[in-house]
Amino acid sequence: MNGSGTLLATGGTGFVVSHVVRSWLERCPDRRALVIDAAPPDDAAEMFFGASNDRIEFITASVIDGGLWQNLKHRSDIVHVVHGAAVTSIDRLVHAAGRGRPGLAGARRSIAVNIDGTLNVLQFAAGLPNLSRLVNVSSGSVYAGQGPEPLPEDGYVEPEGIYPITKYAGERFTAFAANDLALPAVSVRLSGVFGPLDRETAARDVRSAPRIIAEKALAGEPIRVRSFDGAGDFVYAGDVAEAVVSLLEAGALRYPVYNVAAGVLTTIGELVDAFRVRVNALSAEEVPAGEVDVDYPPDRRYGRYGVYDIARIQRDAGWHPRPLADTVSEYLDWLGA
Predict the structure, then answer these.
(1) How far apart, in whole angstroms, are the C-alpha atoms of residue 55 and residue 313?
(2) pTM as predicted
(3) CATH architecture of the domain formed by 5-336
(4) Domain spans, the chain
């Protein structure tokens, strides 16, 4: 399906959803995007969107602002919705209690963004007359620390920490809207995403292992890792975008949740080697835990830390991630440029 229409994307100037917006627009020249984010697009986002900027309408607002949705209620041109607005650093706000911050109370607004914001998006989407599909962006952090390999979507959910609890709540609200309100909505659980626009923002305080390795490699600095046997399921942001757009465009979907991941367990040693193909002088060493750049312990290889089963999305949406070597090369090209 390559029809026209407007995509509403919350969190659309951030890391993952910006890729979704660009992928959506690149598939059809008649498409437009309405991007809602608490922050306006920075220079990196403006450069990333490039020629697509003239088909994007940016609205700087929070998803917990009721006036935002009231002003948009007559937008009958919106046919697809991707909800990705979230605060990822809630747990750090809570754990900072006793060091000048008020703990859980200080994270209340961030929790509201992740939960009340999702409810606002679902309520708004339920009133859209031409809605084709909504995709709620969740996280593999909702899974337990243990589970089979590869990890399926059904079962093994045990969120630890405020952020994964809020993401799982968003999934359940989305499933409720699909079941009880007949909203064409699904959620996606992402593994470890890396790629262009992976940067710190007011809502995101995460540095992926591939990003750290790439920056160190390009700077000619050694990489200090906790263990070369530490591992993760690392998926490229551009591939995640293709997965989400494939779900937006797919016909009837059979499941409420889809894993979006590489579907391959990659050790830190293998990840370093993938970057070394392009940066021959890259050096890496194992160091004590308190001195590391990349802190992946070798005993975390299962559950949320392991490899995710992606057979469901491959069957229902025809999506397949690219090989790590290809995405690492593309990422280095972007960083170099």
Answers:
(1) 29
(2) 0.94
(3) 3-Layer(aba) Sandwich (3.40)
(4) 5-336
